[in-house]
Amino acid sequence: MTDAFLSAPPVVFPGQAGPEHAYRTAHDLLTRRAPEQALEILEPALERDPGNTGLRSLRAWAYLIRVQLQKAEAELRELVVDVPDDVWARHALGRALERQSRLAEALPHLRLAAAMSGDVEHEVAVLRVERLLMPHQQASRN
User: Fold this and answer.
1) Do 107 and 130 contact (CB within 8 A), yes or no?
2) How far apart are CA 42 and CA 132, in angstroms?
3) Phi then psi dihedrals of residue 126, to 5 deg
């Protein structure tokens, strides 16, 4: 029989760790679908380093998981201004807009993310939104 050890995630209290540790811990929490706990780590870290795009991206991800779409949109809009070639932020902004049924606004962001990444999932998102927009475009022509 082999010895197996299970390790618990590190306990980090707000204000105790630097941005790198906050990033790793929050990312781990978000992959486990624990956005509230991730935000508890991210907010103090962002108070110390408000321009940290990695931490801001994780905060946007947490907002998306919590379906706080307006907060996610605001964060993602700032991120794409600060880092226009951030494929994840561009795609996530498109998805946040799509989830708010703002398809015409979502489409340019989704197209740009698909063009920059070549990712099949990004291309599928473009096709999905284009198809959803078709009836609206045809109705507006009539």
Assistant:
1) yes
2) 35
3) -60, -50
pLDDT at residue 140, rounded to an integer: 64
Q: Distance (Å, rounded) from C-alpha 39 to C-alpha 78?
A: 18
Residue of 68, 110, 107 whose CA lies nearest to 88: 110
Total count of domains within the chain: 2
Crossing angle, helix 35-48 and helix 53-65, to 10 degrees?
Answer: 150
From residue 43, give the alpha-carbon distance in Å to each of 15, 32, 99, 141: 10, 18, 25, 47
Whether residue 75 lies inside any domain: the answer is no
Query: Mean pLDDT over residues 110-132, rounded?
Result: 97
User: 61 with 90, same domain?
Assistant: no
Paired tokens of 126:
């473009």
Residue 1: inside a domain: no
Do residues 53 and 100 both lie within one domain?
A: no
pLDDT digits (tens, 9 = 90+) for 45-83: 999 999 999 999 999 999 999 999 999 999 999 999 999
